[in-house]
Amino acid sequence: MSTALSIQMSLSETLAEALLQELRERLRLGIQEHWYSDEFRRVPDGMRTGAILSAYPALAAQKTTLGALQVAIRKQA
To answer: Which domain of life does the protein's organism represent (predicted)?
Structure first.
C-alpha cells in the first residue's frame, strides 16, 4: 500500500531557479550513469528512460520534484 507525501515549500525565485538547475543536472547525470549499463543496454531507446526511472526510485522522485518545481515557477511568472 502506497501513501502519497505532500510537501509545501517557500523559495525565493533565485533559490527556485538554482534548485531547478541542480535537479536537472542530477537527473541527467543519474540517467546517463545507467543508460549504457548491461541492465538497460537491450531496452529500446524510447523506453530506456522509463525503465531506468522504474528501477531507481530516487531518480523518479527527482523527476517528479523537478516537474512540480517547473509548474510552480511557471505559475509565479
So the answer is: Bacteria
pTM, to two decimals:
0.86
How does pLDDT run along the chain (77 residues), one tens digit per residue? 578 888 899 999 999 999 999 999 999 999 999 999 999 999 999 999 999 999 999 999 999 999 999 999 999 87
Q: Which residues contact 21 (CB under 8 A, 6 or more apart)?
A: none
